[in-house]
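Practice record 12: protein with PGD.
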Amino acid sequence: MSADIEPMAEFRPHSSHWGVFSAAMRDGELLVRQYPGDPDPNEIIQNFPSALRHPARIAQPMVRRGWLERGPGPDRRRGRDEFVPMAWDAVLDLLGDELRRVRDRHGPDGVFGGSYGWASAGRFHHAQSQIHRFLNTALGGYVASVNSYSSAAATVIVPHILGDYEALTKHNVTWDQVATHSEVVLAFGGMALKNAMVSGGGISEHVERGAMRAARERGCDFILIGPLHSDLPEETRSEWIANIPGTDTALMLALVHTLVTDGLHDRAFIERYTVGWPVFERYLLGEADGQPKNADWAAPITGVAAEAIRALARRLHGKRVLVTVAHSLQRAEHGEQPVWMGAVLAAALGQIGLPGGGYGYALGAIGYYGRRANAVPGPTLSQGRNRHGNFIPVARIADMLLNPGAAYRYNGQTRTYPDIRLVYWAGGNPFHHHQDLNRLRQAFARVDTLVVHEQAWTATARHADIVLPATMTLEREDIGYSSHDPLMVAMHRIAEPYGEARDDHDIFAALSRRLGVEQAFTEGRNSRDWLRHLYARTQQGLRDQGLPAPDFEEFWAAGSLRLPQAPDDGGPWRAFHEDPDANPLPTASGRIEIFSETVAGFGEASCPGHPTWLPPEETPGPGTPLHLVANQPATRLHSQLDFGGHSIGSKRRGREVATMHPADAAARGIADGDVIRLSNARGACLAAVRLTTDIRPGVVQLATGAWYDPEDPEDDRPLCVHGNPNVLTRDAGTSALAQGCTGQITVVEVERFTGNLPPIRAFDPPRAG
Ligand code: PGD
């Protein structure tokens, strides 16, 4: 039994996606303390104290006036209307009736319950699990969403070319192997610590910085390929190749071209472990289309000198090289290609499956990659079965709502968008995560009813018809657990719920009662009973291994439990390397597919049968001469707790901070600290600006997560005064294969904002009448 977090009388254990901590209420103030066992704690914890009782929290159930007065139906007043407070019983009766109406009239195909979002740590109160369980129980199913905004392109292409996506990202090269074995880490898109600092479900030890430092001290070279120098930590003392955003596939092709023409590629590896090389090689050498994909070809596309590309390729030969490709590269038009081409580059270097070498796809993108898995099962709430089974690729939500009945392509299928009447969201913020937010507003205006459970007045809550206030984790008990972190945490309740906020579970239990399925939803358990029940699975796993298996009360009193972990054995990749016949990959051929008959057979021009350079539709040009990189923020997770002190402290003049190169700024008369206006044909937003030479000229960077704050909500394309880049990004799928999110890159113009600075109102509650 471990007592890693001492359950002191005042400070009690808790957990979040960004770290384990302990907390206490003293004189009405929340105090937080970092977990002492964490070598590199995440400062995002500091968002909690000011957020807990912030006026941005939702205090009571609210119903949009227009919906209340006119009933369900399409309405462009969503996001513009005032709200009417309502008592819990009344609002639950109203919502119960509406759910019954939609179920009886339209069936599960009329309800979108995808409800994508990161929600919070704590495996029982996990909002996605709760909402899906409820919709399955009460409605017999719903239209779901598949894949994620993080990694949709990779999730769909990887099974065709490498097999198991989970094994690629979670059972492959670890940080320990990097520290011990890698000689060169070639990081496309880098491995920014801000991303690795976060892990869904909780994380007790942030090891990435230490592992990179150890590797560097041993002599490992880190090479960062990407427009932002900050995408590798200083500890790596990395070399920086600042390519044009979205051109990594061309760069990788040119690297492989040099390896091949210099005779440096590993023919034996390609022969034994891959299929389809000859078809790809014809394309690479230009035999298929007359254009060799050599360094001279790649130089103007990538903005990297041909000689630098050739020199880099030659340097890789004979070393233990780890190729990493950040998720961000595939969150762009044709995002499947860098994922695939990264695998081909690693195959050409011949080290897939060796310690610290090969292909570490997405290593560093999130805290649970590059680690050992827990050797016992964790607590998971069953979501029941969606008997309906219809789904959309997650980032096609606006397309679906705007085009009911329209056909679209996905992973080799032609599918049809359903006609959605009711959208139900808990634990996500589409006005943070989706692209082209003005289009999303139009899409949400089309449904009959939009229901949102939220802790705070996000723009999603402001666009809802029925808003139900949810508790924060600090206001409830739960179990913090992540599949690749050994510390399971008893998340004690630290504070009373804000206002009338309720747990998502209790809201769904009350609705289940109204819909006659309470027993099926709750199974007769209250929340504490559920924690005991979910814990039992882990306890049994420990028992099965003959390990001490404390009962729930002991675990709860101790505050945490350290779990056994699986060995760092290289997973299926090591086994494949040792014997590809005995341990084939779960692809069509059992080998790495450099050419895929399956993908080729789908006949998509936007994703052919081998990795291909496909120029993006959107490139800088007249009116929008700059690339915008809309990446992950460092001072909050996505949009969560943007009103917390740590996030607010990072803003300037109340706005999100964009970075740009001094040369681009000078050409526009912009000085450090100015407020700028970023715009393109889809929209515009304000941001403060910081000038730095750590960004490629021609590129502007603005992190996601600043809450959407329309200057004039009545406008159809309002200026976001706060700095949400998703008013600018394009709502188009990565390709007809994966239809993933392409929010990472777009094109803009930037100018100095000279008008009167509009106030920030994103954190003020909406009008209530
Ligand atoms: P969050 O801000 O985490 O963003 O998108 P996601 O929707 O996950 O939203 C979670 C919401 O859930 C918050 O509003 C929070 O208050 C609420 N919440 C938390 N806990 C609870 C709870 O217990 N109950 C209830 N009811 N609510 C809760 C993230 C998505 O954004 C992701 S994963 C990625 S990787 C994408 N990245 C980009 C990008 O790189 N570039 C662009 N342009 N856009 C992106 N969007 C994507």
